[in-house]
Automatic annotation (TrEMBL):
InterPro entries: GH (IPR017853), GH_1_N_CS (IPR033132), Glyco_hydro_1 (IPR001360). It is an enzyme of class 3 (hydrolase). Gene3D superfamilies: Glycosidases (3.20.20.80). It catalyses: Hydrolysis of terminal, non-reducing beta-D-glucosyl residues with release of beta-D-glucose. The keyword Hydrolase applies. This is beta-glucosidase.
Length: 465
C-alpha cells in the first residue's frame, strides 16, 4: 500500500487577508483626520460609478475589533492593512503637527492583532495622499517636497509602531497611482496628460528608496523588520502567434512591471520604456539609482488576472500594447468577474510567479489576489454567501501557487486574499464586491461567505505544521 503525501507549503508560509484605509475606515472627519485626495475626488459628481464615497465605508474605524474577530475566526496568520497618512499627520507635511489620536488608533489595532497571534503587514501608502499637500505644492509631482514629506511621515510610523511591526510596505501599486491618477485621471487626483504620470511614478520610486534607506539606517537593525514595495501585475500572453504579439507581451510587462521592478531590483529603467517615452521619462542621477536599486527586501505582488496582448492602441502607459480576454476564435480566456478587467486564469498566475522569481530573484509575497462575483451586488445576503465563482477562483489560484512553490521551486512566502470585507471599490463605489465577508452597507452587518471557509481550509491543509 502506498500513500502519496500532499504537497505542502513550508511551515513559515503566511497567509491572511488585505484591506486599505480609505476603502474600509469611514469616519472621514473624526479625531483630527483631514481630507485626502480620495475624499475630495470621490465627492466630485461623476467620478464614482454609484455616486458614493468613503465617508462611512465599512465603518471599520469603529468596528475594527469585530474585523479582527473575523480574521481570528478565519484562522489567518497575518493581516495586511494600510495606515491613513491623514490620521497621522492630517495636513501631511514635515512642518505640520502629528495627531496623537491617529497614532493611538493604529497602536490599539496593532496590539489587538498581536495579542490574538495575527502578524501585521502594514502599508504606509494605499493612495490616500493628504489633500493639503496636493493643494500646497502638487503632491506627487513635486519631487523636492513630496519625497521629504513622505519620508517624514514614514519616520513617524517607524518610531510609533516599529517596535511591534516587522513587515512594512511603502507603496501599494505605483503603476495604478501614477497612471490612473496622473494620466487617465479616473483615480484621484484625476490628472490627465502624458507627462505627469512619468514624473509621479519616478517620484514614487525615489520616495520609496529614501524611505527604505531611512528604515535600514535607523530602524532595521534593532526592529528586525523587513521592508518592501507592492507592485501590480497581470500576466500577459501573446494574443496570437505573430512576432508582433509576442513582442507586445514582453513590452507590456516592461511597462506595467519593469517600469518599477527594474529600477528597484536591477538598477535601471527598461530600454523599451526609455525608447518610447523619451525625455518625458525622468532620468535617475547616479546617486538616486544607487538608492533605488536594492531597495526592497521582498517582491510584493498584487495580481488578479491574465490578459492577451497585441501590438497597438494608444495607451502609452502600457507601451502601446492592447489587451483583451477574447481569444482570436472568439472564446473567452477565463470566466468573467463583475469587473471588466478581471477574468479567472490560474495558469497565468503560475507563469507570473515563475517569471518574477527568475527575473528578480526576491522572495515573493502575494499581497492581493481576489475576485468580484458578477451580479453579487444585486442579490440578497442569503445568496451572496454562496459565492461559488469566488471559491472556484481561489481554488484555481491557490493551486497554481502551490504548484509554483512545490513543483517549480518559486520562493513565495505569503498570500493575502483581497479582501477581508466588501468595501469601497474606488471609482466603482460599492457596486463591485471583492470581500470574503459580505457587508450590508446599511446596517454594517458582516456575514462570512463560503470563500472565506475555502481559504481557511486550504491553508490549514496545505501548510506544514
Ligand atoms: C487593487 N485594474 O487595485 C488595489 O490595491 C485595491 O485597493 C483594489 O480594491 C483591488 O485591487 C481590486 O480592484 C486595482 O484596473 C485597481 O487592473 C484596478 C486594477 C487593478 C488593481
Amino acid at each position: 500500500m502506498s500513500t502519496t503525501a500532499i504537497a505542502k507549503l513550508p511551515k513559515d508560509f503566511t497567509w491572511g487577508f488585505a484591506t486599505a484605509s480609505y476603502q474600509i475606515e469611514g469616519s472621514f472627519d473624526k479625531d483630527g483626520r483631514e481630507p485626502s485626495i480620495w475624499d475630495v475626488f470621490s465627492k466630485i459628481p461623476g467620478k464614482i460609478g454609484d455616486g458614493s464615497n468613503g465617508d462611512v465605508a465599512t465603518d471599520s474605524y469603529h468596528l475594527w475589533k469585530e474585523d479582527i474577530s473575523l480574521l481570528e475566526a478565519y484562522g489567518v496568520k497575518s493581516y495586511r492593512f494600510s495606515i491613513a497618512w491623514t490620521r497621522i499627520i492630517p495636513k501631511g507635511g514635515r512642518g505640520d503637527p502629528v495627531n496623537e489620536a491617529g497614532l493611538k488608533h493604529y497602536r490599539k489595532i496593532l496590539e489587538e492583532l498581536i495579542s490574538r497571534g495575527i502578524i501585521p503587514f502594514v502599508t504606509l501608502y494605499h493612495w490616500d495622499l493628504p489633500q493639503a499637500l496636493h493643494d500646497r505644492y502638487g503632491g506627487w509631482l513635486n519631487k523636492a517636497e513630496i519625497i521629504q514629506d513622505f519620508v517624514n511621515y514614514a519616520k513617524v510610523c517607524f518610531d510609533a509602531f516599529g517596535d511591534i511591526v516587522e513587515n512594512w510596505i511603502t507603496f501599494n501599486e505605483p503603476w495604478i497611482i501614477s497612471t490612473l491618477g496622473y494620466n487617465v485621471g479616473v483615480f484621484a487626483p484625476g490628472h490627465k496628460g502624458n507627462t505627469d504620470s512619468w514624473i509621479a511614478g519616478h517620484n514614487l520610486l525615489l520616495a520609496h528608496g529614501h524611505t527604505v534607506k531611512l528604515y535600514r539606517d535607523e530602524f532595521q537593525s534593532w526592529q528586525k523588520g523587513t521592508i518592501g514595495i507592492t507592485l501590480d501585475a497581470h500576466w500577459l500572453l501573446p494574443y496570437d502567434d505573430t512576432q508582433a504579439s509576442k513582442d507586445a507581451a514582453i513590452r507590456g510587462l516592461d511597462f506595467k512591471l519593469g517600469r518599477f521592478a527594474d529600477p528597484i531590483y536591477r538598477g535601471y529603467y527598461p530600454e523599451s520604456l526609455k525608447r518610447i517615452v523619451g525625455d518625458r521619462l525622468p532620468a535617475f542621477t547616479e546617486e538616486e539609482i544607487a538608492l533605488v536599486h536594492g531597495s526592497s527586501d521582498f517582491f510584493g505582488l498584487n495580481t488578479y488576472t491574465t490578459h492577451l496582448a497585441m501590438d497597438g492602441g494608444n495607451d502609452e502607459n502600457m507601451g502601446f500594447v492592447k489587451t483583451t480576454h477574447t481569444k482570436p476564435d472568439g472564446s473567452q480566456l477565463g470566466s468573467q468577474s463583475a469587473a471588466p478587467w478581471l477574468q479567472t486564469y490560474p495558469p497565468g498566475f503560475r507563469s507570473l510567479l515563475n517569471y518574477l522569481w527568475k527575473t528578480y530573484e526576491k522572495p515573493i509575497y502575494v499581497t492581493e489576489n481576489g475576485f468580484p462575483v458578477k451580479g453579487e451586488n444585486d442579490i440578497p445576503v442569503e445568496d451572496a454567501v454562496h459565492d461559488t465563482d469566488r471559491v472556484e477562483y481561489f481554488a484555481g489560484y491557490t493551486n497554481a501557487l502551490l504548484e509554483a512553490v512545490t513543483q517549480d521551486g518559486v520562493d513565495v512566502r505569503g498570500y493575502f486574499g483581497w479582501s477581508l470585507l466588501d468595501n469601497f471599490e474606488w471609482a466603482d463605489g460599492y457596486r463591485i464586491r471583492f470581500g470574503v465577508t459580505h457587508v450590508d452597507f446599511k446596517t454594517q452587518k458582516r456575514t462570512p461567505k463560503e470563500s472565506a471557509a475555502f481559504l481557511t481550509k486550504f491553508f490549514k491543509d496545505h501548510i506544514e505544521t
